Amino acid sequence: MLLRVADFIFALRPLILLPAWSFYVLGAHSTGQGDAARTALLHPGFWCMTLILASAYAINQIFDIESDRLNGKGFHLTRGVLRVRVMVLLAFAAFVGAAMLYPKARPGQMGLLLATMLLSFSYSLPPLRWCARPWADLLANAAGYGGLAFVIGAGAFTRAILPAWADALPWMLLVGATFLHTTLLDLEGDSASGKRTTSVAIGVRGSARVAAGLAAGSVATSLQGFLNGNPLSSMFVPASAFAVFLWAAIQIQQSERGSEDLRMAARARASSLAVQIVTALVAIFAAWRDPWFLALVIPVVIAARIYYRARFEISYPG
């Protein structure tokens, strides 16, 4: 019974909410509200955003079932743990929960939450289906995770959200770089299923180079933020991430000299490490700004390790 309940929870992919949570926290702390920002995780706007994204993740699994099967992902549907109609009900339940919380959000968050809903649903749903359109998938992820999540966090404490968009720019570029490496991991399956992502369109080396370029832009814009008064610590994650993405690009470039199997293995290793390291860096920085963030993240990570081992016999995350 407990495992079945866990199926419903983890089908909504709480672990991949971690980046959005991280950027929400960073956005809340960008407003200069000091200790008041430590209550950001308790705001209805935070949980409204969470449920919107959870609903969108469920929809994404429904429409990406074929590419997920080829890529060895989306286990709840591809391995028959849940039926599509159950996933539809979960998506609907999460959406209803978000709708109930929406009126309690702060005024500075309301328009942003509506934008999050429209972007998240159009990402997977036809006819727009941004996830299968080159460059649109990249822009949607950068704007959604690095942009909207960050500014929604700022909107918990201020209605003047335009300055928050400027502060969000380094994170948007960093999310774009990270996204490209996630699609590199799914390149063969996406291509075989007809899902045309940016990485399918520009290839392996092109994706790695663009990712490194976006990370360089993240460093440059964080430097501009520092010159405009942001703390020096705000440059740490972009600078570290740039080093990681540059390393990944070099590894992928060098692997092109080997056999097909060696190239795929080297690419998978480089992209996987890049995604995990950068995601961890952002989460650690968010926890440094708000230690209460750990009270949310640590139980989710531990529960995910236990659940995926018990249900699918895999180590996740890992």
How would you sum up this structure, described in words?
It is globular and about 55 Å long. It is built from 14 helices and no strands. It has a single domain (2-312), classed as Orthogonal Bundle (Farnesyl Diphosphate Synthase). 75% of the residues lie in helices and 0% in strands. By secondary structure, the chain is an all-alpha fold. Helix 4 (65-71) crosses helix 10 (187-193), helix 7 (107-124) runs antiparallel to helix 8 and helix 9 packs antiparallel against helix 11 (198-227).
Question: What attributes characterize this protein structure?
Answer:
0% strand, Farnesyl Diphosphate Synthase, 75% helix, single chain, mainly alpha, 14 helices, 318 residues
Unreliable residue stretches: none
State the order of secondary-structure elements, H for helix, E for strand: HHHHHHHHHHHHHH
Question: DSSP strand (E) fraction?
Answer: under 5%
CATH architecture heading = Orthogonal Bundle
Looking at the chains present, what oligomeric state does this protein adopt?
single chain
Average pLDDT taken over every residue = 91
User: How many domain regions?
Assistant: 1
Structural class of the helix and strand makeup? Answer: mainly alpha
State the share of residues found in helices, binned by percent: over 70%
- Report Rg: 19 Å
How would you describe the shape? globular
Count of DSSP H/I helices: 14
CATH topology: Farnesyl Diphosphate Synthase
CATH class category label:
Mainly Alpha
Separation of the first and last Cα atoms: 26 Å
Q: Quick one: how many beta strands?
A: 0
